[in-house]
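From the methods appendix. Each design record in this collection lists the tokenized structure first, followed by the designed amino acid sequence. Records were kept in a plain field format so they could be parsed without special tools. The example shown here is representative of the layout used throughout.

RECORD:
FOLD TOKENS (272 positions):
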């Protein structure tokens, strides 16, 4: 039986003879149901029309994204540390070519995901790489649509996957919203992989939203909490959830400036 995938958010559901009546992720106010109605596809159908592209962002960090873009359109990141390969965030598409390429790059030892909108076909990816564990924050447990023994829930404010690679709970967009800190990235100055917990904007700054597609802003307290969590960690570069959403340098100051810009914008009338 197929494991149906929502065409709007890309979440894969358990194998079934027929698709669910609706997508729980899209019915929640942070996402949306397609105005044309709920629709579904399968991995087998996508494999007729799509493929994955790869881009090296810096040594040890390779982006993997589906072409043409599907659902939310995010790309995953393969982090290669030398002793542990981590897939950060996930996408809905995987095929034999992707598996062969990733295995040639050392495979995957663990999967970690920032928040439920990027769960994609995480169980499918895990099974393709010998059932590696998927690390999700326990605060987002309710949003796992395809349960499986490979899913592991971490709790608290941080979780070290391997030396120098740490998950940080920031909350905000989702209660368990997390970013990944890689201490050896950016020539050992540190890197943040943020998904859209702190999203990289077109002007190479950052912003924060409760709902991105519905343009619902995040409250000031949540934004300040994100800033406080990240202030304790050294980082130079920030990688958002899409190929072009990258801040290659000056990340710490960019975060400070972006938080101030955001808090000013939601607390004061426009100057002009």
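DESIGN:
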């Amino acid at each position: 039986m197929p494991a149906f995938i929502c065409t709007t958010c890309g979440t894969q559901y358990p194998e079934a003879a027929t698709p669910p009546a609706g997508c729980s992720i899209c019915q929640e106010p942070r996402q949306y149901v397609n105005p044309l109605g709920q629709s579904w596809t399968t991995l087998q159908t996508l494999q007729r029309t799509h493929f994955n592209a790869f881009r090296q962002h810096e040594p040890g960090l390779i982006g993997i994204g589906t072409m043409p873009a599907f659902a939310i359109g995010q790309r995953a990141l393969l982090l290669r540390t030398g002793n542990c390969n981590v897939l950060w965030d996930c996408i809905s598409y995987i095929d034999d070519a992707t598996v062969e390429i990733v295995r040639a790059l050392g495979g995957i030892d663990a999967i970690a995901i920032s928040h439920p909108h990027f769960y994609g076909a995480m169980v499918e990816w895990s099974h393709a790489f010998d059932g590696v564990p998927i690390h999700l924050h326990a605060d987002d447990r309710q949003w796992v649509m395809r349960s499986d023994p490979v899913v592991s829930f971490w709790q608290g404010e941080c979780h070290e996957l391997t030396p120098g690679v740490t998950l940080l709970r920031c909350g905000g967009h989702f209660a368990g919203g997390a970013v990944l800190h890689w201490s050896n990235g950016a020539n050992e100055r540190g890197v943040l992989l943020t998904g859209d917990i702190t999203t990289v904007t077109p002007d190479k700054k950052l912003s924060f939203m409760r709902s991105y597609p519905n343009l619902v802003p995040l409250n000031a307290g949540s934004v300040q909490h994100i800033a406080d969590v990240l202030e304790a960690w050294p980082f130079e570069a920030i990688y958002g959830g899409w190929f072009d959403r990258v801040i290659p340098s000056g990340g710490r100051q960019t975060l400070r400036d972006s938080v101030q810009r955001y808090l000013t914008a939601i607390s004061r009338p426009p100057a002009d």
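APPENDIX NOTE: Helices lie at 24-27, 43-46, 96-104, 122-128, 185-188, 220-231, 251-267.
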